[in-house]
Amino acid sequence: MVAVAPPELKICVYCGTNVGASPAFMEMARDLGTAMAGRGIGLVYGGGKLGLMGAVADAVMAAGGHVIGVIPEVLMRAEVGHTGLSELEVADDMHTRKARMAELADAFIALPGGFGTFEELLEVLTWNQLSFIRKPVVVLDVNGFYTPMLEMFAHAADAGFMRAEHAALAQRATTVEEALAIATAPAPLSVSKWADREGVAD
Ligand code: AMP
């Protein structure tokens, strides 16, 4: 295979290793992959073949796009490391994998998923909150999947555990177009988690 330079703009997509109970999840995953390739946006993802993860990657590849998978050695077999990608990086462990994905990407989009997806999403939200990174984070709320989580964030802000600005770092989209528009726009201005601590129980 001839190595092709990755596109300037790369979006990391977090999503489930399962397909989910509604065909709408798979449909959105494929549509997102196709749209990214169509716009010349590279995909960074967890490198597996399973579930929505495999579907996004397959859609980008099928539409002639560029995919970088980052998978830890320990999951190569469990998540079925994808051998048909533009690039597959094998990371030493889970933490290295997540740090590498976050480093490679200019923005993040979360599709529906389980604990793994939630952990990755929450990690990049907290890194934005702490100003370690400043990159847009989009929650693609397919069929209202993420509505309870967004309500939880608002609840945590109301209860004084985070600022409303930090809850708003999770930017909701309901369509692929909206998700890509948010992901390719500048990230929201970051407000320091530590500034003006009065009344905020950090
Ligand atoms: P899931 O949403 O649980 O199907 O997982 C989606 C992806 O998140 C998979 O590639 C997992 O390997 C990854 N992931 C990242 N961090 C974790 C973690 N702490 N536990 C489980 N999966 C994780």
What features would you highlight for this structure?
binds adenosine monophosphate; seven-stranded parallel β-sheet
Give the helices and strands, then pairings.
Blueprint: E1 10-14, H1 23-38, E2 42-45, H2 51-62, E3 67-72, E4 87-91, H3 94-104, E5 107-110, H4 115-129, E6 137-140, H5 147-158, H6 164-167, E7 170-173, H7 176-183
Parallel strand pairs: 1-2, 1-5, 2-3, 3-4, 5-6, 6-7
The structure holds adenosine monophosphate (AMP).
- On the 0 to 100 scale, the average pLDDT is 94
- Looking at the structure, the CATH topology is Rossmann fold
As for the number of domains, it is 1
- SS class: alpha/beta
Report how far apart the termini are: 50 Å
| Helix count, DSSP H or I runs of 4 or more residues | 7
Total beta-strand segments: 7
Described by the principal axes of the CA atoms, the overall outline is: globular
CATH top level label: Alpha Beta
Report the β-strand fraction as a percent range: 15-25%
The biggest beta sheet is recorded as: 7 strands, parallel
What Rg is obtained from the alpha carbons, in whole angstroms? 17 Å
Helix content: 25-40%
List the strand order in the largest sheet: 4-3-2-1-5-6-7
SSE string: EHEHEEHEHEHHEH
Low-confidence stretches: none
Q: Any idea what the CATH architecture is?
A: 3-Layer(aba) Sandwich
User: What compounds are bound to the protein?
Assistant: adenosine monophosphate
